[in-house]
Amino acid sequence: MPRKVEKTAAEWAELLPADTFQVARQKGTERAFTGEYNNHKGDGEYVCACCGDRLFDSRHKYDSGSGWPSFFQPADGVEIEEERDESHGMVRVEVLCQSCGAHLGHVFPDGPRPTGNRYCINSASLRFKDREEAS
Ligand code: FE
Questions:
Q1: What is the CATH number for 15?
Q2: What single string gives the DSSP state of each residue in 72-122?
Q3: Domain total of the chain
Q4: Over the range 86-107, which residues count as b (16 or more CB within 10 Å of their CB) and which as e?
């Protein structure tokens, strides 16, 4: 599917905070337990830090103990792009924002019910909107 939002790396670098650029546009990973949303408990939605599209909902967030914000599914009606990732000597499934291609994190098959999935997401790729602001 074509991207709704296309920018060059230089354009993103100018628009985004340095940590978001490094994680979302250069496939970086923030250090465990350091991200803004790891322990975040607010009620609302998490949107893409690059393009603002809806990605996750706090109703699906849980404490995985991994040190990164974890969700057992994307927000209702949202499709998250998945891509096989063989970097760093591992085989993982990378997850990306479908609209702008932002690197979000990875999905692992060790999550809780009802999906059994763990979306392990970098805070730097997300922006929280509380429920009222989001609706
Ligand atoms: Fe995006």
A1: 2.170.150.20
A2: SSPPTT---EEEEE-GGG--EEEEE-TTT--EEEEEES---TTT--EEEE-
A3: 1
A4: eeeeeebebbbbbbbbbbbbbb
Q: Give the Å distance between the CA of 45 and the centre of ligand 1.
A: 14
CB atoms closer than 10 angstroms to residue 129: 17
| pLDDT, tens only, 71-103 | 999 999 999 999 999 999 999 999 999 999 999
48 is catalytic: no
Residue 2 lies in a domain: no
Residue 32 lies in a domain: yes
Q: What domain range is 108 assigned to? A: 9-134
CA distance 123 to 69: 7
pTM: 0.95
| Marked catalytic residue, from 50, 51, 97, 120 | 120
74 within some domain: yes
Asked, for residue 3, whether it belongs to a domain, the answer is: no
**Ligand 1 centre from 50 Cα, in Å?**
5
Q: What separation in Å is there between the alpha carbon of 3 and the centre of ligand 1?
A: 9
